[in-house]
Structure formats: C-alpha cells, structure tokens
Fold:
Amino acid sequence: MITLTINEKEITLDKPVTVLEAAKLAGIKIPTLCYHEALKPYGGCRLCVVEVERMPRLQTSCTLMSADGMVVKTESEAISKARRGILEFLLINHPLDCPYCDKAGECELQDMVNKYGASAGRYKEEKRKVPESHKDQILARNMERCIVCTRCVRMCGDVQGASAISIIGRGNRSRMEPFSSAAFNCEYCGNCLTVCPVGAILSRLYIHSFRPWQLDKEVETVCSYCGVGCSFVAQVRDDSIKRVIPRFDLGLNKGLLCSRGRFGYEYISSPERLKTPLVRKHGKLEESTWSEALSVVAERLGHIKKTHGGSSIAGIASPRCCNEDNYVFQKFMRTVCGSNNIDSISRTGFAAAQKYFEDLLGQGITANMIDGLKNSDAILILGGDPTAINPVLGLSIREASGRGAKILVLGNAKGLERFKTLHIMPEVFKEADTLESLLIGIYNARGTRGEKPAIDHGIKSLAGKTGARTAVPEFDELMMTLLESKSASIVFGPDLVQRTDGHRSLFAVSGLTYLLEARLYLLSEKPNEQGVVDTGCVPDMLPGGRPLNVYDFRRKFEEAWKGPVPAEDGLTLFEIIENAGAGKIKAMYIMGENPVFNLPGGPYIKNKLQSLDLLVVQDLFLTETAEIADVVLPALGWSERTGTYTNLERRVQLQRKTVETLHGMEDWRIISEVSGRMGCKMSYTEVRDIMEEMAGVSPLYRDITYQEIGKGNCLWPYHGEPLRGEMKTVPAAADIEREHREDFYLSVEKPLFHSGTLSGKSPALMKIYPGPVLRVGASAAKKAGLKEGDKVQFFTQTGSREAVVSIEESIRDNRVYYSNNFKGSGALGLMTFTIDEVTKAPGLEGCEVKIKKL
Amino acid sequence: MFNETVLKEIDEIRVKYPDRKSALLPSLYIAQREFGWLSQEALLCVAKTLNLPETEVRGAASFYSMYRHKPAGRNLIQLCTNVSCMVLGAERLADFISRKYGVQPGGTSQDGRFSLVIMECIGACGTAPAMLVNTDFHDSLTEKRIEEILEKYK
Structure:
C-alpha cells in the first residue's frame, strides 16, 4: 500500500504507478505531450513537471514512480512558469499555421498553449523551414509542425513492432522519417496518426477536407475486414465516412488498427456498387425493379421446390454478413425451401477446423481472449502469418515476444521475422508429418493426460504406427521449448486445413493443445466466420451448434419457426458444387459470396454454377459469380446497416449503421421479402427483432440483447451451456504418398493490405498494394536465376499468369506466393482441389509451378 | 553485404553486449571503414547483420556527427581552428589546404585524395596549430610542414 498526497488530496494505491497515473486516478489532470497511455513513459517534453516536497528541482511526473509519503503539487507559480517556458521553446520552430493546419481544433499543442500562454515568443530569428512531404501516397509529413515528442516512433517500434520510422538527425534538425526519407515502407497501420499530438502526420485520405468541428456525427462500430473485430469510431460528414479513429478505451483492440481497418473503409462508397436488381433476360443481365426481381426469385424457387423437392436447393451464406442475415438465411433455406444444403466459404478453413477441434476437445476450445496471448511464455504459430491474416492479434504475439515469450514459427511468416525465437520449415505437403512427429515427441516425454479417451487413443495409435516420421533441423529445440513452457498458446491459421490430409494436422494440433494444456487460437480471415457457424449456416447443425440429427433439438426449432425442418444432414460446400446442374442441386442462393473467384478450381466451379436452373446472388458488387447469375440483388454493406458479428474469440459485437444509402436492401430484408412472396411471411420489421428471436431459440446466444452487446460484454460462454457431445473416435482417412518433383509450389498470398476482393474497391489500399506480384524466396530465386522485377510467366497444370517477380527474404523455401485479391488474376483459379474426407475442406492441389522468364 | 572477416569482427563485438542494439555504434564504425562513409547500403548491411530495424540504424547513425554521412576522400584531414590554433594562424592554413589541394572545408578534392573537415579543439593547444590526418596526429603546423606531411598520404 502506498499513500501519497497530490494537491492536498490523499491517494492510496494498491500497486506502484507513476505520479502522473496516480493523479489521473484521483481525477487530477496534469498536462502532457510526449506521454501517451498506450506507450511507455518517455519524459521528453517536460510539460508534466510537478513539485515534490524534499526533492530538488521540478520532476517529470510521467517517469516518477509514486512512493509512500510523497507530497506532490501539480500547479504552482513555478510550475506554470516552467510549462510556459517549454511551450515557448516548442513554438520557436513551430510554424503556427493553425488556420491552415488540419489538426486545429483537436491539436494538443494548440490546447496547451491556449491554457498556459506563451502566446508571444522572444525568439526573433528565422524558423526552421521544411516543405511538407507528399512523397508517400497515404501519409503526409509536415516536419515544421513536429515537436519531436517521438510518440509516433515509439508507437511504431514498441507497440506495432514495425520500426519503420525513426528520429533522424539531432537538435533542431531532428525529424521523423522512414528509412528511405521519402515514401514509407511500412505496414500502414496508421497508428502513428492516432498518437501524433500535432499536425505533423496526416492522412492523405482526408487532408484539407474537413475541420474536426464540422463532423455531423460519430458512430462507434466494428471493422468489417477480419475475424478480430476491432472497434473504432466512424466520423461522418454529409452522410459519408470521413475517417475512422480508434479509441484507446474502446473494444479489444485498445486503440490499435491495421491498414485495412484504418484506410479500407472507402470501398463502401465505391461507384462500382450495384444500384438496382438485375435479372437475366434473353441471356443478358438487365436492370430491373425490386418487385420484379424478388417475384422472379420467389416464383422460380417455388417451382424448383415443387418439381425437384427442397433438397434440390442449396444456399451459400457469407462470413461477411451479420449474424442476423445468416440466421434468417438458414431459417429461410430450412423452413421455406426445405433444404439443409447450407454452407459457407468458411468450410475452406475456419469452420472445418473449428468443428474438428470442438468435436475432439469440447465446444469453446477456440474461445480464448486475444489479450491473453501476451501472457503466454511460448507461442506456436502455424498455418499462416497472423500479423497479416489478423494483424491486431499479431500485435499481441509481438508484445508477448517483447515480454520474453518464445515465438515458434512453423512455415513462412514475414511479420514475425524479427520476433521469432525458432523457425521451422516443413517441406510442402509434409506439414502434417512434422506436426505428428512433434506430437509423438511430446507424448513420449510426458505421456497422455487420460482425460479424453478419443484423443488418448488417437495419440497412442499414432505413436505405435511408425514413431517419428520426419525430422527437421531445430526439431529438438522446438520440442524442449514446448515441454518447458508453462502457458503455451497455439495460433492456427487456415493454410494447413487446405490439404487433402488436413485432418492429420488438425489432429496433431488437437493433441498438442491437449497435452500442453495450451490455449488454441484459430485465425479467421473474414469478420464473421464464427457467426456463420453459430447461426447454423452449416449443413449439420442448427443455430447454437445443436446437431440437426437429434429429434428433440430439431423439434424445438420447428416449433419456434412454425415449419418443418428436414431431418437429414445437408451437403457441404463442395458437395453442393459437385452436385450442381447434372446432379441433384438445381437452384443455388448465394448471399454475399463469390465462389467462382474465392474457391480453388475457378473454371470448374463456374462451369458447375452455369449449369444450374437458377442462380441467385446477393452482393455489393457485380462479382465473377454475380456475372453468371440469373438474378442479382444489391445488398447493403458494412456501415449501411446494423447487425452483429461474432469474432474469432467468440465475442459478439455490434456494428452500427453509420450512413444512409439510397440503393440496396439489408440481406435479411431481401430474404424475408422473397420468403413472403413464397407464402411464408417473416415478421421482422427491424434487425433487433431477429436478434430477439435468436436469443430465444439459440441456446448459445440465450438472452443476449443489443444493449448488452453494445457495452462489449457478450463474451463466450454468454449465458449459454455446453451444447454437444465430443467425438468418441478420431476419424481417419487413407494416407497419401507424395513425391516431390517440381522446383516451385504455388501458395495463396494473404497480404496485409487486402482482404478478399472487397479491399480492391478501396482506393487507399489499392495505392499501397496496387496489383499482384509473384513473391519468391531469396535463395530459391537465386537458384532459378530470378531477379527482383523480372517479368515471368508461371504455369500450373490448369493455367498460367504473367507476373513480376518480387524477392522476399522471409520466404525460406521453394513456395512462391501469389495473391487472390485482384480481379482476373487470382491464384486459386490456377489450382485444383481434392476434398479432405474428414473435414470436407478442399485440399489445394495442382500447385506445382513452372516459371518462365519473359 | 560484408565479407566473412567483417562479419566475424562484428560477431565478436556482439557477444560483448547483452543485446544487439548495444553493438550498433561500433558496427557502424566498421561499416564506415568498409564503405568509406555511411551510405544507405552501409546502413542496410549493418541492419541486416545485427537484425535491427533499418530506420533504427539510420536514426542512431544520423545522431552522431563523427560518422561520415557523405562520401569522403581516401584521406581525411581534420584541422583545428579553435582558439589557440586560430591565434596561431589555423584559418590561413585552412585556406592554404583549400587552394593547394582543391578541397573546401566539408568537401572532398576532385581526385578523391583528401577530404577536409574543420574541427573543434583536439587537445593540442600547447603545440598549436594541429590537425589529424586519418588517425595520425600532427602539430606545430606551418604551410611547409603541411605540404611535407600530406606528401605521405596518396
């Protein structure tokens, strides 16, 4: 216990904090400039000076730890004089161009000078002149205004871990600069923008376009890009989002954002957005009215249901749509169309992996707080680069590294290059072997826990098989580190699911999680992958994870929905596609998804979808899939509607409507309109009604309200209950033998700056990452005689693309990476796939690549 | 990139410190010796060798004025013009070097033979004027003596 007196007020502290923080706790405000709550104390600006009894000179309260019996004064004549003096110094080189500066009105320096004076300086010489730098496409730098508080540099280095900027020079020539002194070569998280107290770093997305006091409204909402679900405030003027700013007291991201969240919001006002419904007439998509388009859909769906039965209709839901949309969608498919053929693109990663993990380890095994990663002493990362797939989660890994955690990376992960302790590079297609060996190694050292018979048995039979199958360098060290760790975490990405024997990796990871008692994190590329599963957009589960084939569960939903739910499990995503046309699927209703581009084997899938009797697509843009649809219905996007997302840690979060729009309808509203026209009226008037219904029927979201979600309190396990049993035996499939022949293997790049094809509609993100390049590892490139900037053509068995080579030091093997984000040039279209019999996820095949120089 | 010998030299420095950052300043001196000055390339080499962020390396290098931030000649003349040296005619000597060898203070001669830097006190006030050529110390300078001394530096 520490008791100190600040301004004659006695303050008792449980743990030692700085005098500044103690004052803050007591509601006493001390002015600061270089201090920031998200950063370590620096003591650079000297504005927070206070008088402490029995201490000589004024003390900087941001660096002074409070001690028992301390007597502190935060305001006095001497202190005011010191602060005034410091501000006078700061203004020596400051241009005082407030009438022209964007920051005016929210500038900390302006406010401070306003309060403490120093309005007239005694400095008569020339001020420092530095022209504003617009060499970067996203961030403008004005080094005349900079007060060298180094908040940006500390944010970039200590928190973001990018270390892309530094203070260059010294004295009055000090300035913040990236290494090149021109454009930034960084992660474009823009967190430097948030912490800059003056107008020295500015976003070119909105520079000179408004004043802070001219904003019409501010809306707290959730980002629409990835499964982390960062909160921020969208600031609106004239019904368009001017900027998004994170708040340090808001949401799980605690004031941090990534490039997509911060700069990617403009896609919503893209001129390419669909404005009216389109209906195919005489082979061409033509503009139509809502009433015509909805009637066409209802009529033709009804007809197909009558002639071929409900199971000839299939639906693909979307992890970009809200829980409410997905819930209404599956209810429509099940009760109105009479089909359980519902799945989503999450099948290719998140949903498949989660089902496997939960079946073995129990529901909620992946519901771990992202914040908890920081407290791990060892983190095993596999199946993708978390700093690119879920950037803000990646920051927790970097922070853990700073706290001394061992960062163990399996595979290529550029964003962890400077943070990893150990790097293991399994051969392409041999990842499962490495993981199984690791599991057996741990098992041999520690034995099983004897708590879950299915896994115990699975591990034992695996160990009995052949023992360790593969050895890679540093393997022993990896094993020892994991065995020594007391609070291990495993971060699992989608790449390892996309193997024909992906279930082997999933079992190995389940086993590791179990033996090490590790926390398991499942990376999620889309914002609502968890929600898609939770709301029942899977062929075998009703909302809340209730198994469909249990009569009691089904009956409860039938009663609530006032309609029959078919008893047999539906088809999974790829079974739906396989059965399209010639098979038994005649009609497909796709909500917010683009399978032709986003799934492997594009040409095959396009062919299949074209052979359907009816293809309905609801989307924001005329995607590759919408182009071949019979009816296209324009939906509303993020910020135009209210709804909830469930993030990868199973936190339900509220996305609030921010702007009005003239075109399009909410996804759930379109579906309920179609449903009404098919003779089943859905009685929702607003989105809140749907959540109310969900809270009533889904045992997972029981009694959840918007009010509660809005406060950010809706975390696993909500008010729910454990919902389904665990697997009794571990499913297996035949082993696959492979030979290695090719020099290069194609992988799908998951860039930090893009997410699906949505981000391609955002001008800022397109400036940062304008088009696809072929990323080749340095040593592999050297072997093949490839250089940076070489024009090449690369071939897989099914196609080829021309591309420019980019050499990437962080790629350590013969994988080459090509993105699947730009129209007309996706990597997935060049691949084929086979289905993992256990998870029903696609194993990417046909990735062997030949590269020809042009 | 640095050759094997240099990498080994930096490695030996690195093991003396608990963290990589501490080895930065001595490594920069090595880079300067190898490249003649701290070019972007030299900074990148140091960053890569020590696995430090490039900007951090540049930030540290730019803070210290005794690193060379632009290309230098083969030999560096550092002439003192502080009080004692000035009184004994160091400024005239600076003019002499400029004229004779075609090198302005802060600049490099066209043949790349000399760079000239005007120094603050180098602690030889008793035998002023004084200068450093590379790491060699010379005092009691006159125009004639400078000519003789510089003859040895090609």
Notes: The domain at 278-347+528-710 of chain A is CATH 3.40.50.740 (Rossmann fold). The CA atoms of residues 141 and 201 of chain A lie 5 Å apart. DSSP finds 26 helices and 36 strands in chain A. Chain A has a mean pLDDT of 91.
